[in-house]
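I have been asked to look over a protein record a colleague put together. Alongside the sequence sits a line of tokens, each denoting a local backbone shape. Please read both lines and tell me whether the tokens look consistent with the sequence. Take the sequence as given and treat only the tokens as open to question. I have pasted the whole thing underneath without changing anything:
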Amino acid sequence: METETEKAYVEETSSAQYSALRAWLYLVRLCIQRQARLRQMVGIALALLLLMATMVTLNTVAGRWGMAKWWWRWYAPQTSSQTGSSEFPPPPKPDVPPRVLTLTYGETAELLRREPLIGRWSANAAGAAGVQDSVALAFQNALERSPFFFFSNWVVFSVFVGFLLPIWSLSFATEALGGDREGGNLIWLLSRPLSRPTIYIAKFVALVPWTLALNVGGFGLLCVLAGAPGRQAFKLYWPAVLAATFSFCALFHLMGAFFRRAAVVALVYSFFLETLLGTMPGYMKRMSIAFYTRCLMFDAARDLGVEPEKPSIYLPVDSTTAWCVLLGLTVVLLGVGMVVFSRSEYRDLN
């Protein structure tokens, strides 16, 4: 049987553990409340969201996501009234200028569906009509799928993943420790009866909800404003945005523990490594988080024909590899960050 001393020791240990857990949860709650303050980088992120939402809305209202309103010029063949009756239209005469028509792709698809453009000049009218119907069907299918394709390439891959996602992530992640360090509040955290690794994790847990709300919520807003292609894109791409958010948070949180001006370092990283290096050919782009995010998106939308422009040059990885890299990178960066935060002296606080 346990002695009274042993029982007292167990009760004291349990009480201490419970008190430490309560202190950690209180720190998380306090950090979540402090993250709600509107800082300069958060204001810039919201301004970028407003600007991008306006551009997406204007394109949606104008119906510019697909190819239906793209136009092209067609030099119409001369008819029999210009050159005399003949079964086959003769080549145009030099002194008779061709008739130029400006058509949109949508109008062209409608003409292919309704008008026998090939049959009247062909000896095998039925066969020519079958060819035209096949071409019209393929052309109409391409027009129907083009809004999702262009929204994915122009908004999601180019602007959101390559630029907005890292900028939005660093607006909260660099402020978790960097803001306290610049404001002189970090010394208060270090004097709490909690170990430094637990403080570091508490800060990370507190910044994740705000970053997810901005990244996933902002992406969802852009997709809703884009209409049908945007809703389809959100359904396919939100897991990749979620995984990338955790990786970016872990990276920029580490920068906040390592650098005094973490926001500046994170901005330089975002512009040069994510925006520029992430789109370069070869294997160098595999150093960027955006590359693996795009690979997840390519794999999710493969059945809809969305893929890199030149797969042999882009060299994408499969979704399993991309998931392993993003999740593994998150864990590794958190571990490195705890070590850095535990061993740093932060003499600049004095």
Q: What stands out?
A: Residues 281 and 311 are 10 Å apart (CA to CA). Confidence is low (pLDDT under 50) at residues 5-13, 81-86. The first helix runs from residue 4 to 35.
